[in-house]
Specification:
- It is built from 6 helices and 7 strands, in the order E-H-H-H-H-E-E-E-H-E-H-E-E.
- By secondary structure, the protein is an alpha+beta fold.
- Helix 1 packs antiparallel against helix 3.
- The longest helix is centred in the N-terminal third of the chain and has 18 residues.
């Protein structure tokens, strides 16, 4: 597995193409085609991804033997310097079960340690039971329910899940 930070327009286009494929495979049965189409355009189109990156989000492309297999994104929480949001992690259907999600989370945890992050959190659709179990097995717990209007008459009906970064991964804080 190779992780590459997304910076170029070609990489952004590759992530947007992955989003189209993965979201249409995975989320249509959970939230329906109309909401998938809306969310892809609003949040996972090339212009939306470029805007998120310019706003400080960090996207990473997951590759296996030169093939794009998935992606994830991290969103700093400006008002909470010791928190980081795993805003998305998606793996193509034909690569699920190969450990890419787990390996990506290990990378994220190590990155959190380098950044002095104490808590990693995410939101996941409450009906996405397999993904919820994936995160539970990796130490995340459900903290709360989150219902958020996203426009177009749609809502995201999610759980907020959190994971404390082990002290061994956190760098020491220096007081001045």
């Amino acid at each position: 597995m190779k992780l590459t930070r997304v910076t170029s327009s070609e990489q952004i286009e590759a992530v947007a193409a992955l989003a189209q494929e993965i979201w249409n495979q995975h989320f249509v049965p959970i939230i329906g085609q109309e909401q998938v189409d809306y969310m892809l355009e609003k949040f996972q189109s090339a212009p939306a991804i470029a805007g998120q990156i310019s706003g400080g989000n960090m996207y990473y492309l997951i590759e296996v033997e030169g093939q794009a297999a998935g992606y994830f994104a991290l969103a700093p929480v400006p008002e909470q310097k010791d928190e980081l949001q795993l805003s998305k992690i998606y793996v193509r259907d034909d690569y699920r079960g190969c450990g890419l999600g787990s390996d990506s989370l290990e990378f994220v945890e190590a990155l959190c340690g380098q950044m002095g992050i104490r808590e990693l959190w995410l939101t996941v659709n409450r009906n996405n039971s397999a993904t919820i179990e994936f995160y539970r097995r990796r130490g995340f717990t459900i903290e709360s329910e989150v219902v958020q209007e996203i426009g177009g008459g749609f809502v995201m009906d999610d759980f907020r899940m959190t994971r404390t970064i082990p002290k061994s991964r956190q760098r020491p804080r220096c007081e001045s």
